[in-house]
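Re: the request from the purification team.
They wanted to know what the chain is likely to look like in 3D before they choose a buffer screen. I agreed to run a prediction and write the result into the notebook, where they can find it.
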Amino acid sequence: MMKPFLVCALVLFPWLASASLEPLFNGRDLEGWRVAGAPCWSVVDGVLTGRSDAAKRNSILWTAKSYADFRVELEFRFSGDIDSGIFLRRENEQIQIGTSRSLGRDMSGSPYIASRGAYPVEAAGVSELLKRGEWNRMRIEARGQNYAVWLNGKRVVEYRSETAIESGPVGLQVHPGVEMKVEFRGLGIEAL
């Protein structure tokens, strides 16, 4: 017999049924997550929302668990000029969502390595794939130092990070100094 939570997850996120992804977000609250920085995170109608506060402070929502090699899948939606991303095992390694503050243009799907202060490679074809104001699907695989990213079903980047660490949590970002809102749903993860 299936547990009620699993049945609910499969109804809300049917793509989990065919994959071996463990839900990261229960659609109700921030259970399984911890907030670092400003309290910018809320859950409304099954959607996880990061919205800058009046002071435009930094906020990262980290998984309570750490992961070594993993695949994470999620849907995100935003409009306007936002700066967000998915942190991989620590704050230094990020897959960008939205506009890079340093470059002043959308770098969604591209890795940003903070210790290098740079985007070492740019995701390909994102301008044609990204649907602003609509739900977009992202898949990220982190295997050791190797990262691969898919946006709306198309592989857009592969990168080998010399600064990747062995294990750590996954994080979602609200960037400081930016008035923004980003939404997430259907978050799932699989250890590889």
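For the purification team: The first helix runs from residue 4 to 12.
Please add any questions underneath this entry.
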